[in-house]
Amino acid sequence: MAKRMLLLFQRIEAALPNKSSKVIQFIGSKQGEGTSTIAREFAKTLAFGINKKVLLLDADRVHPSHHGFFGISYGQGWQDIIRNKWPAEDAIYCYESSDLFVCPSSNTAMSTPELFDARVFDPFLNALRPNSIYS
Predict the structure, then answer these.
(1) What is the pLDDT of residues 53-76, one digit of tens each?
(2) Which is the CATH superfamily of the domain at 2-128?
(3) What is the pLDDT of residue 111?
(4) N or C: which end of the chain has fewer CB within 10 A?
(5) pTM
(6) Is 85:41 a contact under the CB 8 Å cutoff?
(7) Can you spell out the DSSP letters for the chain?
(8) Contact indicator for 24, 9 with CB cutoff of 8 Å
(9) How far apart are CA 37 and CA 16, in angstroms?
(10) Closest CA to 59 of 125, 2, 135
(11) Buried (b) or exposed (e) across 89-126, using 16+ Cβ within 10 A?
(12) CA–CA distance, 43 with 133 (Å, rounded to integer)
């Protein structure tokens, strides 16, 4: 799988050569498709295979899984940070002193579509950019 993830990264790099940081979004339409697995494998390949700084943001409010996969226990998720206007770094957890960071979903199944409103979500995403809080 790592070989496929490297190929995917190379294609993204070729398509966006002038971008110093990239936001890559993996979206699934239903549970069990493997979207979380692909996102995790991509993140692991970049962080451990080519030493890229990676932030894996879990947007699944109902079945968040990335923190569990990496054995990370957490207090706040990114929805808590947005709702309460807390510092973004309070929802970022480093995996074993590596360049892989996980930003878990809050532990709620509540529908929170307002959190994806660009006026609320964009400032949060900008705070997560490389060379900002987790550099």
Answers:
(1) 999 998 887 778 899 999 998 888
(2) P-loop containing nucleotide triphosphate hydrolases (3.40.50.300)
(3) 63
(4) C
(5) 0.84
(6) no
(7) -HHHHHHHHHHHHHHSTT-SS-------SSTTSSHHHHHHHHHHIIIIIS---EEEE---SSS--HHHHTT---S--HHHHHHHT--GGGG-EESTTSSEEEEPPPS-----GGGGSHHHHHHHHHHHSTTSTT-
(8) no
(9) 24
(10) 125
(11) ebbbbebeeebbbbbbbbeeeeeeeebeeeeeeeebee
(12) 18
Residue type (1 letter), 129 = R
Cβ within 8 Å of residue 73, ≥6 positions away: 67
Residues belonging to the chain: 135
List phi, psi (to 5°) of 78: -65, -30
Q: Where are the domains of the chain?
A: 2-128
Report the C-alpha gap between 19 and 108 in whole angstroms.
Answer: 34
